[in-house]
Amino acid sequence: MATVSYYKTKSGRRWQVQYTKPDGSRTRKRGFPTKAEAQAWIEDQGVAQRKGTWVDPALSNIPLSELWDPWIAIKKMRHGTSTWKPLDSAWRTHVKPRWGLTPINQITTEQLQTWIVDLSENKSVTIVERCLGIIRGMLDLAITNKRLTTNPATAVHCPARKRPKQVFLSLEQLEALASKCSDDKKALVWLLGTSGCRWGEAVGLTVGDVNPLRGRISVTKSASTVGGRVVVGATKGRRDRVIAATPAVFELLVPLMAGKSPDCLLWEKRGGGHLTTPSKRSWWHSAVDACVAEDSSFPSLLTPHDLRHTAASLLISNGASVKVVQAQLGHASAKETLDIYSGLFDEDLDSVIDAVGRAQRAAGSRRKNKGEPKVSQKAD
């Protein structure tokens, strides 16, 4: 049972609804400009209750900021520091100042889209996507907690993202890059360029992670550079894995392991501690510059992550299946591998079709020979 009545404010008459919630308790909803709008709201609530989609208005009248702590706690539980730290920064810098105090039931798709358009004028696509992803995720949590029935951020669009150009080194170029490095960094370059390790995973390796006898390396942690500092945490997606490496790589790793205890790092910076992502005046850029000076076709903007792409290209060009590449690189699914490297698999299409064609011709020849009658020899 719901009743409509008016009350006076400084700005004039307003209307309120007193109604009974599904649990039997009485409450009210205030602030309607007209009696017709109050009655329409009652009808909407009745429909929602009959459909089982009713949400207590009091639960949806909370500011967005109240959802931040439980939402980011889930992110911290499921992801490493390098994943949730940028989210925390985007929340504090961009999302919270604009939406933190806004009640979640007053956030509209139109408002969000206008904000995203404005934000994209001076922020990168990555930041814009991150900010929208935060609001979408928080409002999804509100739906899960029965505070909202729909997510107004779902229909909001971000600017189109240009697919970054992937850089792949040839084996000769990888050899050239390694030759410009000291022995310990040479091992790191070859590991990155042939195994598909991420930078943080590689520099987080300890002696105990490497098993030369089995030809395997256990990847269970990542030493990511976040804000200029190294943060050791779980691997991306918290997906531990065991990867393979070539005998040549193990020959370079074994000297780095000599005389060290299992928990010692393979690579350390001067003074101890994990290596950070190479800066502009580092050994990495010196090696790249030296390669460019000798070969103008060498990628001048090469990054350590490009060696991960190089490893993928080497695996695929040497016949590795999608599932093998997925397992080696630590992707969540084969679909993710195909989304990133579909072009490399397309390059193998001609050789695959040629092989199928040869098998088809061979099968046809066997069938033809099987069907030919045997020639009997008659006596003269």
Find the structural class using helix and strand composition.
mainly alpha
CATH class of the largest domain: Mainly Alpha
Beta-strand residue fraction: 5-15%
What kind of sheet is the major sheet? Answer: 3 strands, antiparallel
Write the CATH homologous superfamily of the largest domain. Intergrase catalytic core
Mean pLDDT: 88
Shape descriptor? elongated
Q: Catalogue the unreliable spans.
A: none
- The name CATH uses for the topology of the largest domain is hpI Integrase, Chain A
Q: What's the SSE blueprint?
A:
Elements lengths: L2 E7 L2 E9 L5 E7 L2 H17 L16 H11 L2 H19 L9 H12 L4 H20 L26 H9 L3 H13 L3 H5 L6 E2 L4 E4 L2 E5 L2 E5 L7 E4 L2 H11 L25 H12 L9 H14 L4 H8 L4 H14 L1 H23 L9
Antiparallel strand pairs: 1-2, 2-3, 4-5, 5-8, 6-7
Please describe what this structure looks like.
The chain is mainly alpha-helical and 380 residues long. It has 3 domains: 2-51; 64-145, DNA polymerase, domain 1 (Orthogonal Bundle), CATH 1.10.150; 171-329, hpI Integrase, Chain A (Orthogonal Bundle), CATH 1.10.443.10. It has helices at 35-51, 68-78, 81-99, 109-120, 125-144, 171-179, 183-195, 199-203, 247-257, 283-294, 304-317, 322-329, 334-347, 349-371; strands spanning 3-9, 12-20, 26-32, 210-211, 216-219, 222-226, 229-233, 241-244. Strand 1 (3-9) and strand 2 form a beta hairpin. Helix 3 crosses helix 5 (125-144), helix 6 (171-179) packs antiparallel against helix 7 and helix 7 (183-195) packs antiparallel against helix 9. The radius of gyration is 31 Å and the shape is elongated. Residues 164-354 form the Tyr recombinase domain. Residues 370-380 have a biased composition (Basic and acidic residues). Belongs to the 'phage' integrase family. One of its GO terms (molecular function) is DNA binding.
